[in-house]
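Records of this kind hold a single protein each, on a pair of labelled lines. Below, a sample record shows both lines together.
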Amino acid sequence: MTTTGPTTRTTTRKLARFTGHYAEMVAAMIIGMVALGPLWPSIERPDVGALVMATDMTVAMVLAMLLRRHSWPRIAEMAAAMSLPFAALLVPYWLGAISGTTLMVAGHVLMFPLMLAAMVWRRAEYWH
């Protein structure tokens, strides 16, 4: 009689699933921008536009994470990783140190590594 233990995934397979989780989150963000963006009137102020866009992306991300049955603390961490770059950049924007374009671009550029950092920090949630 042979007994076999539980099958374990290879590191390559775990990395593929981790990468897939990240890609799903990026897809959710894009869907949020495309689906929710048209609901808002034309926004002339870059600071308001950045906050609305971050909110649209975060709403879609929260829904995607709920569908994947992530816990509320993990959802809150990911929402913070998505919103905090924009919130932090509002101060230099309001002080005239950066332009509206820089606010929008830098907010997006900072968001992606912060999301990845949140995933790595809580890798047990995403690395399986």
Notes: The chain has a mean pLDDT of 89. The chain has five helices and no strands.
